[in-house]
Structures are given as C-alpha cells and as structure tokens.
Write a structure and sequence with these properties.
The protein has two domains: about 5-170, Protein Transport Mog1p, Chain A (3-Layer(aba) Sandwich); about 175-300, 60s Ribosomal Protein L30, Chain: A (2-Layer Sandwich). The strands form three sheets. It has a six-stranded antiparallel sheet with strand order 3-4-8-7-6-5. By secondary structure, the protein is an alpha+beta fold. It has helices at about 75-90, 100, 105-110, 180-185, 210-220, 240-260, 285-290, and strands at about 5-10, 20-25, 30-45, 55-70, 90-100, 125-135, 135-145, 150-155, 170-175, 190, 225-230, 265-270, 290-300. The relative contact order is 0.16.
Length: about 300
C-alpha cells in the first residue's frame, strides 16, 4: 500500500520519453496557469546593480506549483532529482543559485513568483534554476516552510512551436516512503492534500490520496487506530476555532468511514483550534499552513 506520486513532466515539445519526478504521496499540485501567448522574464543571473539579469521570452507560458511534505529535506534535496531529469532530457542549465547567492530578498522580489497561497518562498531558504533546450526555456523555484516544501515550474514554448504535452500526475504503487513512512516514524503526519479556507469545515469531493493510504494502512495493520486532529489559524476566538477544527476532523473521519469502509471504532476525531500552530499566523501563507488535519498513530 505504500505509494508515491510520479510527476511526469513532459518538458520537450516532441512526444519523447517523459520525466518521472518522484515526490512523497502527500505532494499535490495546487495551481496551474496557462497563457497561450504571454511573456516571461527568465532570470539568468544573481541580483546585482539594482536588478536581476534576465532574458525576455515570449510564447505559451505555463505556470505550475506543488506543495509537499518536505520533513527534514533541504531545498537542494528537493531540487536535485528535478535537475537531474531536466539535464537528462537535454536541457542546458543557464543559471542556478541558492538564496544567499541569488541575492536573497532582492532576487525574490525581482523574480516572478506565483501568488500566495499557491506558492511560498522563504527569503533565506530557496533555490532557483533556469534552463533552455532549443527555443524552450523553463525555471524551477524551490522553497520550504517546514514541514512543507514548495515547487514552482514556469515553462515557455516559442510561438509556432508544437504545443508541449500537459503535465500529468500519476499515483503508482512503489516501495515504502512518503506519508505512511512519516506516520510510522514520527507517529503523526499532516494530511496535506486536504485544504480548508478560514472558517470552512466541509471536505471536498476528492478523491484524496492521503485517505486511501490511511485506509489501506489500517486494513494492513488491524491492531492500530488513528486519531484525527483538526487545527485552525488564529482568526477568531478559541471556542469558535476549537469547534471548527473538531468539525474538520469529524468530516475526515466520516469520509474514511463512508468512502473507504474503515470501522468507526478505529478512528477518533478532535480539534484543538489554534493551540498547536506549525508556523506564525502573521502571514497569509502561515495561516494557510496552520489550517490542517493531522493523523496520529495509536498503537496501545
């Protein structure tokens, strides 16, 4: 039942072999913006003399972002397999930098970034890469806000070129790793493909890969149980937030029972409001991260 997401990034215009970029099972694409004709300032150097050196490119511009549970992984550990696959597809790396060498704050705010909450960039913890293959260009921006990691891909195909294949996200069965490994190692895991707006308690239609994984784990481990814990940002008072977070956890519990056949006595649900944030609520990004449901493994 252990699974991972294979993100098949078909970066060449011709229908050649796709790239298989592996992420934990909790990874999810959070945004997709495609413009048939647009321009993009592709960074090709670090911030200097008041600007980021760039190349203006025009054509079909695709902007994608993902969020994943990075755990203790560094931005380089997230970037490295993506870079390897890009090079394997024949792309030439034009420019690559780590936050401090990029120019920190100045590079970040003089480079195109998909708006929050779809993308998050920590000023002192990000990596950037730009590359080209013939007339095609792309950039990757990687950052973290533990326990989450963020990936932004911008790809430009010249006017008149063959339209590149779409990005395809597939779920495949593969060895141990991802959400279930984190659950077993740490005793708890954030269900990162579940997302709630401020005050929202309803769970979307799904399907949600995290719930399928949890249901399979409970089936394979009949002596275990789960506690689902709901969390909120700090908008409003504690009593209201505790009620909201409890309803979120209960909605997830009910989905596991109704859609995945998990026995009711094997799942508990409770909310703690804003009492256990994983980051500051001072920003929109932080509040988005704090609105979550976690699964806690119960073995006794």
């Amino acid at each position: 039942m252990n699974r991972f997401l294979a993100l098949c990034l078909c970066l060449l215009a011709a229908p050649v072999a796709a790239q298989n970029l592996t992420f934990p099972s909790s990874a999810r694409q959070v945004s997709e913006r495609v413009s048939a004709l647009d321009s993009y300032e592709l960074p090709i150097g670090a911030f200097a003399d008041g600007k980021v050196p760039s190349r203006n490119v025009e054509g079909r511009v695709e902007r994608y972002t993902w969020r994943l549970q990075a755990g203790s992984s560094t931005t380089l550990q997230i970037l490295a397999p993506l870079r390897e696959q890009i090079v394997a597809q024949g792309y030439d790396i034009l420019f690559e930098c780590e936050a401090r060498n990029c120019g920190g704050f100045d590079f970040r705010f003089n480079t195109e970034v998909v708006p929050t909450p779809d993308m998050y960039v920590a000023i002192n913890d990000y990596r950037f890469l730009s590359a080209s293959h013939g007339g095609d260009v792309l950039s990757l921006l990687i950052s973290r806000n533990p326990p989450d990691g963020y990936v932004q891909l911008i790809r430009v195909t010249p006017v008149g070129a063959t339209t590149p294949p779409p990005l395809v996200i597939e779920e495949t069965v593969q060895g141990s790793g991802g959400l279930l490994t984190e659950l077993q190692q740490d005793g708890h895991v954030i269900l990162d493909d579940l997302h709630f707006q401020t005050g929202e308690v309803a769970l979307g239609a799904g399907p949600f890969a995290s719930l399928s994984l949890l249901a399979g784990y409970l089936q394979d481990n009949p002596d275990t149980r789960l506690a689902l814990v709901g969390h909120t940002d700090d908008t409003g008072n504690l009593q209201a937030n505790t009620a909201v977070s409890t309803k979120r956890a209960q909605a997830v519990r009910q989905r596991l029972i109704d859609a995945h056949g998990v026995a009711a006595d094997r799942i508990e649900a409770q909310g703690v409001g804003y009492l256990a944030p994983i980051t500051s609520n001072a920003t929109a990004e932080g509040r988005d991260l704090n609105r979550r449901v976690e699964a806690v493994l119960l073995v006794n």
